[in-house]
Amino acid sequence: MGESKSQKSVEVNAENFSECCSCSCKNIKTILAKYGSDRVRLMDILIDIQTNVGCISKESVKEIAENLNISKVDVEQTLSFYHFFSEKPTGKYAIYLNDSAVANMMGRSDIAKALEEEVGCKFGSVTEDCQIGLFDTACIGMNDQEPSAIINQRVFTNLTKEKVKLIVNGIKNNFDVNDIQIEGYCQATHKLITSNVCSNIKKEGPILTKDMKVGDALKKVILMDPNDVIELVKQSNLRGRGGAGFPTGMKWQFCRAFKDEKHYIFCNADEGEPGTFKDRVILTERPELLFEGMAIAGYSIGSDEGILYLRYEYKYLQNYLEDVLSTLREQNLLGKDIGGKAGLNFDIRIQFGGGAYVCGEESALIESAEGKRGEPRDRPPFPVEKGYLQKPTVVNNVETLCAVTKIIHQGPKWYRSLGTLDSTGSKVMSISGDCDNPGIYEIEWGFTVNDILEMVGAKDVQAVQVGGPSGSCIASNEFKRKLAYEDLATGGSMIIIGKHRDLIKDIVMNFTDFFIEESCGSCVPCRAMTVQFKNKLEKIYRGNGVQEDIDQMLEWGKVMKMNRCGLGHTAANPILTTLKNFRELYTAKLQKTDYVSEFNLEEAVQESCAAAGRIPNLGGDHE
Amino acid sequence: MSKKIVATTSLAGCFGCHMSLLDIDERILDLIELVEFNKSPIDDIKTFTKQCDIGIIEGGCCNSENVHVLKDFRKNCKILISVGECAIMGGLPAMRNNNASITECLEEAYLNCVSVQANEEKIIPNDEELPMILDKVYPCHEIVKIDYFLPGCAPRADLIWNALVALVTGNEMDLPYEVIKFD
Ligand SMILES: Cc1cc2nc3c(=O)[nH]c(=O)nc-3n(C[C@H](O)[C@H](O)[C@H](O)COP(=O)(O)O)c2cc1C
Ligand code: SF4
Ligand code: SF4
Fold it and tell me: Are A83 and A348 in contact (CB under 8 A)?
């Protein structure tokens, strides 16, 4: 390994990058032509260039701007918004190692160290020969098989030091990442899926069980009046599975009521909430169910175009999903004259994101799909009135749309027989953290936290994070609560945190960093207070906190409601919910005085005195 | 009732907050009825001559002298108020905090800047008598306990006035929307 250690790394910055690595994209004209020089397709253009040469240079920006007839700043602001786009070279092999809380719980730091050693550069830089770059990234949706990394779109899961050696070795021998063989990985579900990601389905329910013929629900629907279809969905009491729980039938009805020449259906597969990976598994195992659901939604609201907004982290599913779409077209379930019904058209395209949690928020998702920064819009107007390209648009979660297909197929009455009165049907849960059997569990609504803990083999549980960082962190006194909209609502994830964990450091701080990183920056409290919260946490953690620090955090929590979107509304939840449920972890660290200063005069004057060549005078009267 | 004693100081500030205090116009006559000033640029008393009730701090801390004065205020005043953006958050001087190290700032100011003309020996001021510059500009509450904060740049005269009157009379503070609205 002596060789790789001596390999120097370069901190790439805007000044030196052009000499360091070539960033010029020779295919840029072809790429622009592929998307018809359409400004709306800027995301696709940037993704293609980034994938091609590992960065998007100033020259490329200029060429894109000229070609799309927009300003360079328009291109730059989209480019700079997304984690996976880079003006600086990211290396021929860009390694993105997941930095989620669970990844860290599962030994991420050892893997990071091994990578730095094997590769020969630090995180946040690329090797001098421009071959390999090392980067952190937020949760990549693999919490049940961490530590994991994405390298040139292929996901490597369950990393060990040995695997890191094999992988880096393959890279150094110039292998295509897809040709790197690793023993012991589970088989991919389909030959077009190039990553060996396990689906880890531990419990099947209505959505994950393969018990219906593809197209049966859609063929039923197209004989019905669209309003009657919406009525069926309403009767099922189906509520959105993306987190907010909005009644699906009502959303469709609103959207249908806005008359316009075009309507759109979006499927939200951004799945950015750390700890959530159920949409990844549904997309892998039941894509037909989803696409059928989109077509049913399209028929109901009068739309002929559906867009699957898929997070960049799941790009390894692209070829597979495209293949499923073509099969559906061949079967006449998508495309023109669907099911032989003249004039009934509906097709779906896949829109990739570029790595930004906030793009899961529906209006940010639409902005992003229009080729812009993923900044949430002011609402109203809501997407159902003015969405994609200002046309009425329905945005639904992957699981919601799958449930629709089943509801149509088996009827709303059947669906209502599952779950509770207010929360009908099933919920696909992503379970990870300290338990024997992490993975996917499709349960009926109404299960208690205790039921689930038992099911997944979790012992010595300190806390359960329900619904990801934006949800809440609960203690054992709440484990008897039911998962249901009327009790403990969840977008679909549970992270189990064992007694041996340092809850504040391992979880709360990681989540707070996540929100700091992912805030789009529009609202001051979301952008700035999150950092202040983090400073307070660190102060308390250093043992310099006082009661007032906690009081202030509680006060500030109220201010977060002033933010524009759900990200900002919930960004303090990791702190606020642990302050509520685990207060003693904080108070144990507090000093018993009413004020502590961390200011140190000697340290503070050191640098300036050195620069001026004087000896610090800290004599009596300065203290 | 004996008059409350007030001290004021301007640390790394621009004196704008003191100007705003003077903007209370003819109410300054009422103020003199209510309080007595001790150490303050207003009456030019340079050192504390007695224990004070209220200390008004303008500006954050950018050098050792500021720290010294601030700590002296904490010792000598029962209540400290951070007045204005600079005292509360560092304000304009704190712009140096994120963009460059103090070494870079000093080099730019004394060695490299286009307007530097007569510094052939390339000296960054180093006289023993000069206060030492801090690595960054600190808000006052990170150095001593501050009891109240009056926001604004500068806070409106009415805000300062209302706060002082409330403190001195022990009544609840009058806080109409206009005095804490900033645009
Ligand atoms: C910051 C943020 C992130 C979100 N991420 C997702 C996501 O990844 N997937 C999702 O379906 N909904 C997400 N949502 C919720 C969406 O805004 C929207 O409510 C949902 O997609 C609607 O679909 P549904 O009615 O089927 O739940 C997010 C919301 C916020 C505020
Ligand atoms: S709350 Fe945060 S993420 Fe949402 S719009 Fe405001 S700044 Fe952006
Ligand atoms: S807050 Fe404004 S007015 Fe007051 S000292 Fe600072 S810059 Fe001057």
Answer: no
Q: Which residues of B touch A612 (CB under 8 A)?
A: 106, 124-126
pLDDT digit string, tens, across residues B85-94: 999 999 999 9
Q: What are phi and psi of A242, to 5 degrees?
A: -80, -5
Asked if A333 and A346 touch (Cβ cutoff 8 Å), the reply is no
Q: Output the CA A491–ligand 1 centroid distance in Å.
A: 8
HEC secondary structure over chain B:
CCCEEEEEEECECCCHHHHHHHCCCCHHHHHHHHEEECCECCCCECCCCCCEEEEEEECEEEEHHHHHHHHHHHHHEEEEEEEHHHHHHCCHHHHHHHHCCHHHHHHHHHHHCCCCCCCCCCCCCCCCCCCCEEEEEECHHHCCCCCEEECCCCCCHHHHHHHHHHHHHCCCCCCCHHHHCCC
The finding on whether B155 has its CB within 6 A of some atom of ligand 3 is no
One domain for residues A461 and A313: no
Position A291 in a domain: yes
What count of Cα atoms within 13 Å lies in the side-chain half-sphere of residue A121?
Answer: 25
- CB distance from A592 to chain B under 8 Å? no
**Shortest alpha-carbon distance between residue A539 and chain B (Å):** 11
Closest by Cα among A111, A156, A110, A133 to A9: A133
Task: Please give the tally of structural domains in chain B.
Answer: 1
Are both A404 and A480 inside the same structural domain? no
Give A240 Cα–ligand 1 centroid separation in angstroms.
Answer: 9
User: Is pLDDT above 60 for A623?
Assistant: no
Q: What is the mean pLDDT of chain A?
A: 94
Cβ of residue B101 closer than 8 Å to a chain A Cβ: yes
Q: What is the pTM of this model?
A: 0.92
Residue B128 resides in a domain: no
List CB contacts (< 8 A) between A609 and chain B. 132
What ipTM describes this predicted complex?
0.94
- In this complex, the residue of A599, A601, A611 whose CB is nearest that of residue B103 is A611
A621 pLDDT higher than 80: no
A598, A607, A608: best mutation site toward chain B, by most B Cβ within 10 Å?
Answer: A608
Are A392 and A433 members of one domain?
Answer: no
Q: From the CA of A243, how far away is ligand 1's center (Å)?
A: 6
Q: What's the gap in Å between A51 CA and the centre of ligand 1?
A: 27
3-class SS of residue A1: coil
- Out of A484, A501, A518, a domain closes at A501
C-beta neighbour count of A585 within 10 angstroms: 17
Q: Is the CB of A376 under 6 A from ligand 2?
A: yes
Test B145 with A595 for CB contact under 8 angstroms.
yes
A101-113 tens-digit pLDDT: 999 999 999 999 9
Quote the pLDDT of residue A14. 41
Assigned domain for B127 exists: no
B158 in contact with ligand 3, CB cutoff 6 A? no
Looking at ligand 2, which atom is closest to the CA of residue A563?
1
CA–CA gap between residue A270 and residue A311 (Å, rounded): 5
| Tokens found for residue A135 | 């980067």
Surface-to-core class of residue A261, CB atoms within 10 Å of its CB (0-12 exposed, 13-18 middle, 19+ buried) = exposed
User: Ligand 3, closest atom to CA B91?
Assistant: 6
Residue finishing a domain among A395, A416, A437: A416
Q: Which ligand is nearest to the CA of A564?
A: 2
B84 lines ligand 3 (CB under 6 A): yes
